[in-house]
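Repro case for the chain-ordering regression, as requested:
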Amino acid sequence: MAKIIVDGVEVDVPAEYTLLQAAELAGAEIPRFCFHERLSIAGNCRMCLVEVKGAPKPVASCAWGVRDCRPGPNGEPPEVFTKSPTVKKAREGVMEFLLINHPLDCPICDQGGQCDLQDQAMAYGVDTSRFHENKRAVTDKYLGPLVRTSMNRCIHCTRCIRFTAEVAGVPDLGAIWRGEDMEITSYLEKALGSELQANVADLCPVGALTHKPESFHYRPWELARTDSVDVMDAVGSSIRVDYRGREVMRILPRVNEDVNEEWITDKARHIVDGLRLQRLDRPYLRENGRLRPATWQEAFGAIAARMKGTDPKRIGAIVGDLPAVEEMYALKLLMQSLGVANIDARQDGTVLSPAYGRGSYLFNSTISGIEDADAILIVGSNPRIEGSLVNVRIRKRWRVAPPPIALIGENVDLTYSYEYLGAGPETLSDLAAGKHSFVEKLKNAERPLIIVGQGALSRPDGLAILSAVAQLAQSVGAVKEGWSGLSVLHTAASRVGALDLGFVPGEGGVTAREMAQGGMDVLFNLGADEIDIAPGAFVIYQGTHGDRGAHRADVILPGATYTEKSGTFVNTEGRVQIANRAAFAPGDAREDWAILRALSDVLGQRLPFDSLNALRQKLYADHPHFAAVESVQPADAAAAVQALAGLGGTPGREAFTSPIKDFYLTNPIARASGVMAECSALARELKLEAAE
Amino acid sequence: MAVRKLAPEELQPESFSFSPETEAFADQQIAKYPPGRQASAVIALLWKVQEQAGGWVPRKAIEAVAAKLDMPVIRVMEVATFYTMFNLEPVGKYFIQFCGTTPCMLRGAGDIKKVLERRIGESGHINPDGTFSWLEVECLGACSNAPMVQINDDYYEDLTVDNFEKLLDDLASGRPVRKGSQIGRNRSEPFQAVNTLKDPSLYDGSVVGAWRKRFEETTPEGPTEEPGLEQRAAENPRAAKPDSGRAIGRVIETPANRAAEGKPPIDAKDRADAASKDRATAVEPRTEEAGIKAPESSKSYVANPSNPEEGRPASTMPTTPVAGTPPSEAETRRDGSESKPDVVVDKDNKTS
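-- result from build under test --
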């Protein structure tokens, strides 16, 4: 620790801190453009100049370490001034330089009102410029469907370059030419090839890079915000949903060090248009093979008539990827009261089940725990598309000091280098038998981490594979006191919540895939769109979009998306998070738990709650861990691994393939979004190009 | 600096591959750096590739270098575009880099430039038969032989309009040319007559050790007892930092001096002074003098700006539209010509 005096305040900071960090600790605000906590230090905007006592010139505080400062003549701590006249003058000078080439187009700039340059020019700049020459003009660049460019506004902070190269791991952006002619571009203006590219527009301190899909749609001061959680994957990124009136206008990341740091995927951000397209806004009823609009009474009446006298053994309920815990709980209670055992939330056919303990299906190491791992094995997963921010964490760990990383599954670009062991379960068996050299690396590691993806688990021999993985984890000591190194990466936001609730077939019940294949008279489908339901059953679809589930439905009950209801979601780590309501569901659509409550009344099995609070009270009484919002209740991973390892079984020979075929089109909301369709088409094109 | 851009698509070759020679050179360069740091060889490779491709770096060559060094293409592109000595557009068989910096300019580079413009044409373009192209560059470091040009790898110096024309003729027709000075002078030795370093004693060895002799002559006679180090320090305390050997006219106030005098090494007042915030490296804040206006733009975006100095406190123009007048003909309508008198405004909008 080193002492340093900032504006007369003495603070004790680690010696490797920069002056900027030390000043922030001391409570002094330092303006900056190029500096960003999560990117490398560039030191090229010069906005963070401060005065160091004894230094002949102001110094860039972002790039000057506390340990680089000289002590005073008698060993006094070094002293820094952030409010002295020199600093004020330096900031004014830098600001004048930055504004020399910056166009005065704030009134037509999308960044207006949320612009670092605008704010800092107001706070630290002067009102005149001595520059009488022409301003520089730069041609705009094409960077793909998500980022609009207006390169005249660029101040060359290089944050976007550093983000793509360091965090996203796709070195697409660069700065060509030099000096005044410097231009930020991708090679030959190709679209950026990252699933995190839209973050560069968030990072841009000026209006040079803005979000293309939502450009010119709103001004930031018109929007109200709601803190929420993303459901596009099982990572559960913290987001804020900004809305105007009853319409969601944009989604931005929130800082959450445990989950997403401050990035979100393009899918989480740009499905906004999918929230208003293809929506089910009234109940529908199938009559003579065609769906017709109906009233709630008609719809409920049709369901009640059909359910009446049906054998509970021939009734089933499937839950999809997006419902919140509340409605799954309500559906489970309803099915219980009807005596139905055929309930399943695993439409992808994954073998994970609460039967083997909570530790058997959680990402036990936690996402931030990846940074502590010192050897990583990925089995049957492509984390880059299944959980992009998990992949970002692995890359972050890899950048600090590359640990041994290996992959069994599809040989894909994960943005970091890894050892490719093989494609399928045979390699895994070899590894478990100690026949592969990578086992030694896992054994020698203090905190080995094994990540299992749904590519390995959602197949008939999934249980045997999971058991083999558990045996491997046991043999390399991945689960021990203080470290749970067996982690399951989910792909669906509601899956962990459903498994926590025990939304799996009861005594004598059948699984979702079996239900879909036939044998059911009435099938209640709560938002499951990734499964084909065979003809025969009377299907009640409760969901939000006119997607595959709605096409197969006999009755459609319109529900609310995650931005239109308050719902609990549990991410792949087991972290309980609440998505808050930002807008209202369109038309006659209602919150899902309320639909189920109303339906239960019609079916004569009234659910014992009349409000969301009452529902939650009962939920928390039954499953106390849901009450611990924003936290992870650690599971007993050791017992789970023990249980799984004991299962045994013989894995098949088929290679692992990722369950996600198209990153941009994984759920009904994304499939309704035009932006996602465009991204998907572009990604396919890039893939074809790469294959050539 | 001249405007640089990538060569248009039709000039770019379809493909590019390293010649065996370039390949060998590349491997040799890469071997200079530790494994995994092969990207350090990027400038050397680009240079070699430029040589192979006939004086410029095509796009495919940039991609080939990136593939060879296992770098993202944009990183190689950054380097190739940053350094002006990588030509990104085709050059003539003889690529002339003409120095236009001050010494050459003073010695008549302007005339040379006129020759270039007349015979080859615009800078950055190849002449019709492909022999020449030229570019004005910054100082090439041959100022004593100004004016000069660099043609491909060689310098041609001491140019005049006549000998430069002849040089270009000779190059164009493939006749041998003389590199270096075009007026027969040996490198950069004096232009007309040798005026310096003429003393023969400089060359007969008599000056070797002359400084020692001078030193010995001024040494006082007889050895004196040197006082011990400690005694000297007590008698004549000095700062810990050795002085530069220059004569010191006054006793310097140093902490060591003061300590020898029995005073505290640092004066309490000085210490307070040094700690004072406004004494650090502070610049005196500018005080606004009364009567001097802050700088402001002479432009106004108001049709009839107020100007109290001319006794025009407020607009005399009507501000309320007259009823019945179409907005386009309203007197209050402005079209920007007030603030930009040079702009011709097509009031009736006839041209569009």
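Ordering looks correct now. Chain B has eleven helices and five strands.
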